[in-house]
Amino acid sequence: MAGYEHELAQIVADLNRAAQASREAAPNTTGSLDELLAQAARRNASDIILIAGAPPVLRVNGALSPSSGAPLSGDDTRALLLSLLAPAHGQELNKNKSVDLCFTRPGVGRFRANIHYQRGTLAASIRLLPERIPTLESLHLPATLRRFAEARQGLILVTGPTGCGKSSTLAALLDLINTTRHDHIVTIEDPVEYVHANRASIIEQIEVGHDTPDFASSVRSILRQTPDVILVGEMRDQETMGTVLTIAETGHLVLSALHTNDTSQAVSRILDSFPAGNQPQIRQQLSLSLLAVIAQQLVPGEGGKRYPAVEVMAATSGVRSLIRKGDDHQLYSAIATGRSAGMMTMEQSLVEMVRKGTITADTALAHCFRPEDLKRYLQQ
Fold it and tell me: Is domain 143-344 given the CATH code 3.40.50.300 in the classification?
């Protein structure tokens, strides 16, 4: 144990010396990083990408745009990024070669960063987080999602690719609960992105790596905290998924995220995480606990802005029966014919956006999953 502690202390000391050396070699790096963050905020960028060999790159309305400045060297990226690392972050970076963290710059905003290695040099993707917690209306999400935040128990999943706004949607739903209900809300996040204040509800936010070692252990013990509503930032492993399903069955409202393209894939993603022998039981649990799956993607629209196209699967009795029986291939048809229950397919959502003038038909076609269905809907 003493040897391990000595080795850990040596790693931290090495990182601190490297950070100090980098700052001495480039004394204005902290200022340069702050200037870059401020520039990204002024341009309403969603992300900053820092890679050795290229100038800092901003993502504005989904498109990459080089910022002002010369290409960064490996020493430049190291100096810029090590200034963000607390000793615990440095230890994780050294161990896993990647670390996630959030930080704040007064007067500029709050940021989420993934710092990692590429080609032997430090690199990063930094996400700008809105200062205010968004609402469903400000995110241009369907008003029908509000009713899911009124539920007292069940599982709400938000799915989609990286950068599609899952965290913002979850934050908006959680804020709606926080302002309209008198509940005890507990979140488990890696890292904490949106900071929620106590409103009508009381809210605790647990950060993985800081307040708890991992998602699984925190989810296992969370019921001892007597929560009414639980947010699990992401279901990453079999143990977390299984525990979340059990919690959602036992009178709690649980919100979480998955990386799948559409709603029916979310069902398959959960089932495929378990051995074949356990899948019938998981199907039963999922059919009982699931409340809704919301799949989204951001689509370029008028004025250069991006808007969410949203597929919604509500757990009606028919949907629950399909999941329980293993008829997942019929879920899409159930969604397409379930408009009265607040459901819609991705193609139906895209067609609505075309008819409102938010996006063009060509854009809708480029972002749909089933082109023939989209074309048929457009002709109706």
Answer: yes
